[in-house]
Design goal:
The chain is of the alpha+beta class and 286 residues long. Helix content is 65%, strand content 13%. The longest helix has 50 residues, at 67-116. It is elongated, with a radius of gyration of 37 Å.
Length: 286
């Protein structure tokens, strides 16, 4: 296609400007092609080759002219070819650098976006990412008439652990909690750290018969981790909100989960409470 276009351009110039211009383009175009597709070295070689070939053609066509005139014309054409090749090579290199910079910028933006949605300590999604995913899941549940469910997990007596063992140990415990949550939930579920000692889970397949056992397993896993710190009574309270029909706003789901979690804490901590959409208040489970 490019060759056809090149021949067409040469033919047009031959018609408009006469044969000299089209003749010249047969020397110029290979140089420009080498500069664009092959780079600096091949472009320089093509310039020298084209310059010599052009000189030979001119010498044959103007045999009566002085050698000095032919040499002057040939040198000026050679310099023109080299300059044109250098210009095209520079454009090519600038274009390549621009593509590399754009690719690098895209990577940086992607990394920054990921950091903005990731908790630095646990590598879980943060509150922002969780709320965005929750809004998407609510919209999906409304379209498909499926239930929705989230769980809040709040570490019991975490301040006592920090005070007794130090913040480094507290951070390690949060990492262990995050890993325990990952290991307990399903691959389609979304775990997040909301901040401090608060975690959340969005259950994507929210059948009540499926999510309640997961909440009990989450409670058991956090209690097992807390037993490694005897005398500190470390564990977790789990509050779950479940709606058979998705509510209009995510705040309704969040408020129910928060209320269920505080019900579990008020009942003595290390408990699991569920607040169903059709219930007036949360109910302790187990």
């Amino acid at each position: 296609m490019l060759a056809v276009a090149a021949v067409a351009v040469v033919g047009l110039l031959d018609y408009v400007t006469g044969p000299w211009m089209s003749f010249a383009l047969f020397y110029v175009m290979p140089v420009l092609g080498a500069a664009w597709w092959l780079g600096r070295g091949p472009a320089l070689l093509a310039s020298l080759t084209a310059g010599i070939a052009w000189f030979e053609a001119e010498a044959w066509d103007h045999r009566g002219e002085s050698t000095r005139t032919l040499m002057w014309n040939s040198m000026s054409r050679l310099l023109m070819l080299v300059a044109m090749a250098a210009m095209v090579v520079r454009i090519r290199e600038d274009r390549r650098r621009l593509k590399e910079m754009n690719a690098r910028l895209s990577e940086l933006l992607h990394g920054a976006e990921k950091l903005a949605r990731t908790d630095a300590l646990t590598n879980l999604p943060n509150r922002r990412a969780f709320l965005e995913r929750l809004s998407e899941e609510l919209a999906h549940a409304r379209r498909n008439a499926t239930p929705v469910c989230i769980a809040y997990i709040d570490i019991d007596n975490f301040k006592r652990l920090n005070d007794e063992r130090g913040h480094v140990e507290g951070d390690q415990f949060l990492k262990k909690i995050a890993q325990a949550i990952r290991d307990t939930i399903r691959g389609s579920d979304v775990a997040a750290r909301l901040g401090g000692d608060e975690f959340a889970v969005l259950f994507t397949d929210a059948k009540r018969s499926a999510v309640e056992p997961l909440a009990h397993r989450l409670l058991a896993r956090t209690q097992a981790l807390g037993e490694r710190y005897p005398g500190l009574d470390v564990g977790a309270s789990v509050g779950m909100a479940w709606f058979e029909a998705a509510p209009d706003a995510p705040e309704q789901l969040l408020d129910r989960a928060d209320g269920a979690m505080y019900e579990a804490k008020s009942a003595g901590k290390h408990r699991f409470a569920l607040w169903a959409g059709d219930s007036a208040r949360p109910q302790l489970q187990g």
